[in-house]
Design brief:
This protein has about 260 residues and is an alpha+beta fold. It is built from 3 helices and 12 strands, in the order αααββββββββββββ. Helix 1 packs across helix 2.
């Protein structure tokens, strides 16, 4: 009787998850709005379920008597290697935190990504309860990756700098011979993996290899967050302005941990 009830609960759980996802999908179609209390509850419920499903099993690999020991060893070895990589990522993240003095770092784990909009947004496991607010900068050990866009109690949505949203712009500073040249980050080339920046006058001296940082203008992001280096420079067809392409050292296909920068109170 207990086993039947347990199986029924599992079936209900697997029915509930897709329903919640579909509801959230329809509610998130309008991106330029605040998160409602109903959507916040749904997001938090989904976050809780995701966390439960992500808890690693503690059952031993060799529970079955006739299980091949060599196969079990390979499985365990792969698991250990995966855990070791996660530990190294976390260590690198903590090392990054030592360089941040004006902001309080809040480390977070990636919960999910929309496969249809892979380079647009990610969802993290920190929200209002952790002091997360809209517009906060989100970084990794390689530099800026995006900003907080939507916040619920226990999770948040991060808009990436690789987004297709043409309204997402970041003021940047290009360091050329100890001189700051300002531009706007607003585009991504999926084929080359380069970030695009515009708004540079044709007379401005910019070189391949120049370092690119956030400028701090517009108060969206702190000044001096690393983004990448200039990889390519192009002039427009009228030779009136330049477009630069920036190489970042973040693999946007492989993000597991991030840090949100919270202003100190």
């Amino acid at each position: 009787m207990y086993k039947k009830k347990k199986d029924k609960n599992k079936i209900l759980l697997f029915i509930l998850i897709p329903v919640l996802v579909i509801i959230l999908l329809f509610m998130s179609l309008n991106k330029n709005r605040y998160v409602s209390s109903v959507e916040s509850i749904l997001k938090d419920t989904t976050t809780f379920i995701q966390k439960v499903l992500l808890i690693p099993s503690t059952k031993p690999f060799n529970k079955e008597k006739n299980k091949d020991q060599s196969e079990s060893y390979i499985i365990q070895k792969n698991v250990n290697e995966s855990l070791e990589k996660e530990i190294q990522d976390l260590k690198a993240q903590l090392e990054l935190n030592k360089t941040i003095t004006e902001y309080t770092p809040e480390n977070a784990t990636i919960l999910s990504r929309n496969k249809s909009y892979w380079f647009n947004t990610i969802t993290i496991d920190k929200g209002k309860k952790d002091g997360i607010k809209n517009e906060m900068a989100v970084i990794t050990k390689y530099g800026l990756i995006g900003k907080i866009e939507k916040v619920s109690n226990h999770s948040s949505e991060v808009k990436l700098i690789t987004t297709e949203d043409i309204n997402f712009k970041v003021s940047i500073s290009i360091k050329t011979n100890n001189t700051d040249n300002f531009a706007i980050l607003n585009g991504y080339d999926k084929e080359t993996g380069l970030i695009k920046a515009t708004g540079i006058d044709k007379t401005t001296a910019v070189n391949v290899g120049d370092e690119v940082l956030t400028s701090g203008l517009g108060s969206m992001f702190p000044q001096g967050i690393y983004i990448g280096t200039v990889e390519k420079i192009e002039s427009d067809k009228y030779n009136l302005s330049k477009t630069i392409y920036i190489k970042t050292y973040q693999n946007f296909n492989d993000i597991h941990y991030v840090t949100v920068l919270k202003e100190k109170k």
